[in-house]
Amino acid sequence: MRRRKFISLLAGMVVVSWPRGVKAQGAARRPMVAVLVPGSQESSQEYVNVFLQVLREQGRIDGQTIDIKYRYADGDASRHPALAQELVRLNPDVIVAGSTTPALACKQATATIPIVSAVLTDAIDLGLITSIARPGGNVTGIMGLEGMPGKQLQLLLEMVPDLTRIGLIVTVNEKASGMFRQNAEAAAAAMGVTLVPVEVRTPEDIEGAFQALTQARVKAVHVLGSQLVLSARREFTARALAARLPTVFSTLEPVEAGGLMAYGTHFGERWRRVAYLVEQILKGTKPADLPVEILTKHELVINFSTARALGISIPPSIITRADRVIE
Questions:
Q1: pLDDT tens, 103-152?
Q2: DSSP string of 33-46, one letter each residue
């Protein structure tokens, strides 16, 4: 009798437990996207929001149909390798890297997980891809036109005539800085201008950089493409204004924060395109077969308020070519 009761009880437990077990086995894991952002959460939120919006338009909603995990380097490129390792351990379906340096860190951490980078500068020489049309490995992303430092320097000379000594901000621990610096120095030599390089690595170096520029008696500053400066753009532009130094940038956000002028791309557009590439990978396309996209549209943006504060009269030739003017 006891044996019958025990068997009946056991059968009942199996019946009650079975649906729960079936549900656990049948529950599909949501796709995971890991994001390594070079800047801080606050400074990067604008273009991360663009990324999220485009994903939502594709039906990818964080916490509902997809899981997104973030790591922020806070403008310090030395943190990228450790953060990349953290993200790889999560075993995501795809990793988004905010620029070339974190993309390299991610590629060093994994040869199999797809990586999409918002910035791919000098990507072939750095070993990130084998070609633009067919990247060939686990990395693809967005590339801009090369040679922009020369154009930016030319605009600065047009904005502030008779410049002979110009400061050059070089973020030395960002991989693209070497190529940008070579381009800028070649352009300066052709224009008969002396560049005074000042190297930075972390946001804490910004104050000392402007002290060095002041001591060197430069009259303007050319800021090479820099995730550090992009992350700390408010502090950077405030110090440039306090030192009464006109600035030219390769991204538009520092001008919105008070810099004088920029000729380049808006980072939000890069992250918009990244979201589309991520969607294609989640649908099954391999990054090796996903051509690198090249942004060909560059904008000239000028901050009138900063020009007035510096006592600069903007030449009509620049005003007529400006895509946007910030009052």
A1: 999 999 999 999 999 999 889 999 999 999 999 999 999 997 666 888 99
A2: EEEEESS-HHHHHH
Q: d(Cα 12, Cα 241) in Å, to the nearest integer?
A: 77
Residue type, 327: E
List the structure tokens of 154: 């030319």
The two structure tokens encoding residue 110: 């994994």
Which residues, other chains included, contact 323 with Cβ-Cβ below 8 Å and sequence gap of 6+?
A: 299, 300, 301
CA distances 115 to 75, 85, 232, Å, are 20, 13, 25
Residues present in the chain in total: 327
3-class DSSP state for residue 199? strand
Distances (CA, A) of 212 to 79, 125, 271, 280: 26, 32, 34, 47
Residue 14 within a domain:
no
Query: Domain holding 312: CATH number?
Result: 3.40.50.2300
Same domain flag for 186 and 307: yes
